[in-house]
Amino acid sequence: MVGKIVTAALFVALIGWDLWEATGNMIGLPGFYEALSVGEDTPWFLLIPGVIIPVVVLAAGLWWGWRRKSVVESAVVYALALAVQSSLALSLIAAEQAWRADVLINSLQQ
């Protein structure tokens, strides 16, 4: 039981880090876009899922992982959930970078 609690706590800490980063992006990027004079083009459609996805993955991973019989099975489920979360987070970050480049290029051409 102690092993399951420790692995779950580690999983929560790692997903929590992604949630912290996503929240920081959601708070900080609008000001960054404002400073670049393109505040109306803030990609909220990328920032909001960046905060929601870690919460959903955390809940699903804990629910699914806690129901496993052994610590190893729970750890595998948590690792799988963390991999899914990380790939989605990196995809959203890459999409935001591409969005920013497009917005800046368009603002310079006007």
What does the model show?
It is a single chain. The chain is an all-alpha fold and 110 residues long. The protein has one domain. The chain contains 3 helices and no strands. The chain has helices spanning 2-35, 44-66, 71-109. Helix 1 packs parallel to helix 3 (71-109). The radius of gyration is 18 Å and the shape is elongated. The chain starts with a helix and ends with a helix.
SSE order and pairing:
Blueprint: H1 2-35, H2 44-66, H3 71-109
Helix pairs in contact: 1-2, 1-3, 2-3
Features:
single chain, 110 residues, 3 helices
Give the count of structural domains: 1
Content-based structural category: mainly alpha
- The number of helical segments is 3
Q: Estimate the global geometry from the Cα principal axes.
A: elongated
Number of strands: 0
What are the low-pLDDT stretches, counting only 5+ consecutive residues below 50? none
Mean pLDDT: 93
Instruction: Report helical residue fraction.
Output: over 70%
User: What is the gyration radius calculated from CA atoms?
Assistant: 18 Å
How would a crystallographer describe the biggest sheet?
A: none
Strand content: under 5%
- H-E order: HHH
Task: Tell me the distance between the termini.
Answer: 62 Å
In short:
The protein is mainly alpha-helical. It contains three helices and no strands.
